[in-house]
Each structure stands twice: as C-alpha cells, then as structure tokens.
Design goal:
alpha/beta; two-stranded antiparallel ribbon; six-stranded mixed beta sheet
Length: 221
C-alpha cells in the first residue's frame, strides 16, 4: 500500500492532546478489533520530546497513549513524574502532560509477538520526521538503542563520532542541528542509579536556560 499524503495541519500546532496533527497511518497489521496505531500525545508546544520505539515495547496498544501499560513505558513515565517540575500528572493511563510530548518512531501497532519490519520503520520515517519538526522541541529524549541511533543519525552530526553504548550515553547530552539530545537507556535494562540519573539530568536542564539550546546546538552540532 502506498503512503498517504501528510495532512496540511501537520504544519500547525494545535491544542489537541492525542494525535494533534491528525496523522493517518499508511498501513494496518492489526485485527479488526485492535487499535491501529498509538499516535503522538501531549503538549504540542512542548520543549521536551520523548521518543520511544513502537507500542509493543513501550506500551499503548490498549490505552492509545505512549509510555503506558508496559513496564518499560511506565518506568519512563515514573521518571518524568519525579522531575521537580512535573511533566506528567493525573492518571497513568491518560496523564496530563505539560511542556512534554511523547511519540514513537513506529506508531503503528503490530500483532503480539511481532516486531515492525525494517521496511515498515522506513515507511513511517517521514511521518515521524514531520511530527518532530512540527513539535519543534528544544530537547529530544530518545528511549532505547533504535530511537537513539535514529535521532543521532538524522538530527545531529554526532552519530559517526559516538559509540552507541547505551549505558554510557544514558542521561548524557549531545548537541545536534538545533537540538539537545539526551539518550535514555531502555528501562528494561536499567541498573541501580539509572532512573535517578535521568531525573537529575532533566532537573538540571529545567533549571538551566535550556531555551537557548537551539542557538548553541546549531553552532556546535
């Protein structure tokens, strides 16, 4: 099936919380009664954009909200809730997000026990890219190796210089083309101190003049 055109509204920030740009997935591998996709969710004017892999890893096949349901997804949500200036409040299955947006590289749901194919990741890449640029957040937080690899490759000049060692990259910061990137190790692999390191890093960024990141990052990255 060919890709459907991106809607014009993807260029316009809205006040909708779920799928604010009205994206429509280009394919559907789910059953008749299953959710087709887990769309981006949160504050469309956010400075912080948390980027997961796909619903089967980081959750949302039942709720339709990224970073819900699964152990890994809820660990990310818990860390964000622990930051001094709360990004997430309210129910865990449908939180209220402030200055924070959540989405996946691969928004479409796939059957249980299956992973997206490389072609399916490729088919959704321009959807992800359009949404990321529409949100235009200052800080990108890719979760896990695939998301981190993609963000560093596509939005910084750092990928060739960086060993994709997630324990070492976790909660560090890298400068990109107008972004600060803070990689997050997959929560299923977290060790003692990893959650606290993420909370401390985000707290420090919030206490800094992080809105200057775009100018600095453009010069550095």
């Amino acid at each position: 099936m060919g890709l459907r055109p991106l809607p014009r509204s993807v260029q316009t920030v809205t006040d909708r919380t779920s799928n604010p740009f009205g994206l429509r997935p280009p394919f559907d591998r789910t059953g008749a009664d299953d959710r087709t996709a887990v769309f981006g969710y949160g504050d469309a004017n956010a400075d912080f954009h948390v980027i997961g892999d796909y619903p089967g890893v980081h959750g949302g096949k039942r709720t339709g909200v990224p970073f819900t349901e699964t152990e890994a997804g809820l660990a990310i949500q818990t860390a964000l809730r622990d930051v001094d200036r709360d990004f997430a409040t309210g129910p865990r299955e449908q939180p209220e997000l402030d200055n924070c947006y959540w989405s996946y590289l691969h928004m479409c749901c796939v059957p249980d026990g299956h992973r997206p194919t490389e072609q399916e990741y490729a088919d959704l890449e321009r959807y992800f890219d359009a949404e990321l640029r529409a949100i235009n957040a200052h800080i990108l937080l890719p979760v896990g190796e695939r998301a981190t690899d993609h963000v560093l490759r596509e939005y910084t000049t750092q990928r060739r210089r960086v060993d994709l060692d997630m324990p070492a990259l976790h909660a560090s910061d890298l400068r990109g083309r107008g972004f600060m990137v803070i990689p997050i190790r997959n929560p299923r692999e977290w060790e003692d101190g990893d959650q606290a390191a993420l909370v401390d890093k985000l707290t420090a960024v919030l206490e800094s003049d992080y809105r200057q990141t775009k100018g600095v990052a453009t010069r550095v990255g």
